[in-house]
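Why do we care about 3D structure at all? Because function follows from shape, and shape follows, mostly, from sequence. That is the central idea of this module. The next example makes it concrete: a single protein chain, its amino acid sequence, and then its structure expressed as tokens.
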Amino acid sequence: MQSEKVMAQAYVRAGNVNWIAKGSDVGVQERTLAPGEEVPWHFHTIITDTTYCLAGTVQIELLGPSEKILLGPGESHAIATHRPHRISPHGDQHCRFLLVQGVGKYDRHPVDPNNWSG
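And the structure:
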């Protein structure tokens, strides 16, 4: 079974966030992350995160199993429920992407990747 350690800090949305659409069962954000910024490790049990790269290179790291995905402009990737992940720019350049979250009630569960056993 999965091990989850609750993070000590409250979640703060990293980078520049521009909400395009926000409803009861879907959300769409345009996000820009600078080098060193990240969407920290977490997973969802209801919704799927789908990332569409607009500029730069988006790096998606996943657990269960460990995997790294790099997206260039025009590329996308959907992250399955229950799959821990974090998103950051790859290299020393900003990245800009659309993050589509849904369909379902938003849920977010922080994960300590060092304690994940899922």
